[in-house]
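User: What would this chain look like folded?
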Amino acid sequence: MADADKSSPNSENAPHLEDCHHLINWALNSAEAGLHYATATAVPLTAPLAKKFEGQISAVDQKLCQGLDIVEEKVPIVKKPPQQIYDAAKAVMNSSLQPTIEKLNVAKESATQQASTLKEISITKANELLNTQCGNMAVQGIDNTSVLINRLLDHYFPPVEGEEDAPILISADENKVLHAVQTIGQLSTKTANRVYHSVAAQLRTIKKEDVTTYISSVVSILHLTNFLNLGQKQTDDKQADSPTEKEDEEKK
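Assistant: Here's the prediction, encoded as structure tokens.
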């Protein structure tokens, strides 16, 4: 049994653990001694400095305290919690801005009402003018022109698949102004859509040879125009020089 205990791992590591324990104790004791030495050395050095500036430090401290007292007296809210300060500031801002916001809303409503009234008056006056003989002729001319343009569009720019039906217009008997405006607007929209779809379809079917032929034709036309301009310029120059030659011959 004694031999077994001597050969066990615990018995072999015991001396190492004891040495490690002594080493740690020595390190801690050395650190503590160094701390005590530093404290004992620093106190004699710092005590005179602290004593020397004690008056100035006290005066500054008193001034700061007085300043805080004045702030608390003038602004008692600083002693309240942050959330309460935020709520109070928000309430003050809302109370100060609310009259201005109300004035702006009133001005906006007034302007909107005036614009609506002016619009109604303008439409009424326009309807009164269109109810005259000349006005009826003008409305009839717009309708006739619309019918003619629609026929031309249907012939030269036929409708495409998926085109929406035109909305029903207000009759001229109900409101001549709105009837004229809707007629012109519908005609413009229809013309733009038909022309766009027609051009897009032609661009999809165009060929490279057609583009080359077109460009060659344009270049030939440009050359011919340049040639004609040069010929015209030479003719003008000759006509400008001929009176001068005649005068020289007469002098001779």
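The longest helix spans residues 82-130. If you want, I can go into more detail on any region.
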